[in-house]
């Protein structure tokens, strides 16, 4: 697998990227070997003629749930019953892992070359990661497996263990570590659908001492901690006790900004799942008035958190929270668009955030996220320029993951999702 990518326009993923013409990118095996002037290609390289298309780093999605696909629902299912059923015997577990792998492949086919899972069933995430590392046509995977919650907390009993004491928190983190994750996930607050009344989405569920104990145990094993947080109180509790990334977020004050900075923490914005709750007509979303009201609070809170962090120089990454209704495994490009539209960033900065910034937040900035000699050959190609219109990322001409080239990748899309979400472009 030695390729010479010629006649392309390079967008390297850096903050100040400009379209670069007249260069050839040489990839050898899993790596970018060199970037040379547009001249004679060295012997031994297969020519990939881009014919004026745009070559850029593969996108990185920092918040994915592999078991679900984002198909719209008319009523809520019971996740606890569903997970118990899926994990009840070897045949069901095997089928569920294959489903997770298929969903991961959809991410790849849509231009996402790295995903970070944020809560899954048992050890399924790391099982799919092993498939990827052993040559399956899948993106690079940073796995979290099960998360840690509390009784009555977000995803408790389904994608998260229920800890009733500090001792149980530590035991749960140790149980997760035995499944060889790349990150530990905590469910510190509730979510939109957990709230029973208007005005209280993201109610603080996990005591501060639980958060601290989980972070200390994870950090002792060299693992970062990510936290589901959807309220100002949750952001503060998470940062005060050692969390590394705030997933989702909420409106923050100066004290929280100082905690972000002193802890070198990051915010991972997830606008995709909040938008349908907040902006769809309820005849389409099939959510209650309470859920829509609270969805707007969360949507506006994520936007406010991202803006405040950007202003303060705090890294803001992007993730789709795929698995929620109307959030598919092929629509990472929409998250970039929402970031541009609602957080007032340029197309260039949105693409930079989904590549180099996301790589740094995930702890793999030395590996991927930019087009540069010595980095992984994680590349995508589009016909149009995403710096002019991010919808160029909607159709990917080629994907290269760790040096493996996939020409004309295809994804089967859900018509209802496309029709509804396209109204918010």
Features of this protein?
425 residues; Urease, subunit C, domain 1; 2 domains; 5-stranded mixed sheet; 5-stranded parallel sheet; 19 strands; 19% strand
**Total number of strands:** 19
Query: What is the CATH architecture assignment of the largest domain?
Result: Alpha-Beta Barrel
Q: What structural class do the secondary elements suggest?
A: alpha/beta
Individual helix count: 13
Named CATH topology of the largest domain: TIM Barrel
Specify the biggest β-sheet.
5 strands, mixed
Total number of domains: 2
Question: What is the level 1 CATH name of the largest domain?
Answer: Alpha Beta
Distance between the termini: 38 Å
Strand fraction equals 15-25%
Average residue pLDDT: 96
CATH superfamily of the largest domain, by name, is: Metal-dependent hydrolases
| CA-atom Rg in angstroms | 21 Å
Overall description:
It comes from Massilicoli timonensis. Pfam families: Amidohydro_1. The chain is an alpha/beta fold and 425 residues long. It folds into 2 domains: 112 residues, Urease, subunit C, domain 1 (Roll); 303 residues, TIM Barrel (Alpha-Beta Barrel), CATH 3.20.20. It contains 13 helices and 19 strands. It has a 5-stranded mixed sheet, with no helix packed on it. It has a 5-stranded parallel sheet with strand order 12-13-14-15-16. A hairpin with a 2-residue loop joins β3 and β4. α2 packs across α3. The longest helix has 24 residues. The radius of gyration is 21 Å and the shape is globular. The chain starts with a strand and ends with a helix.
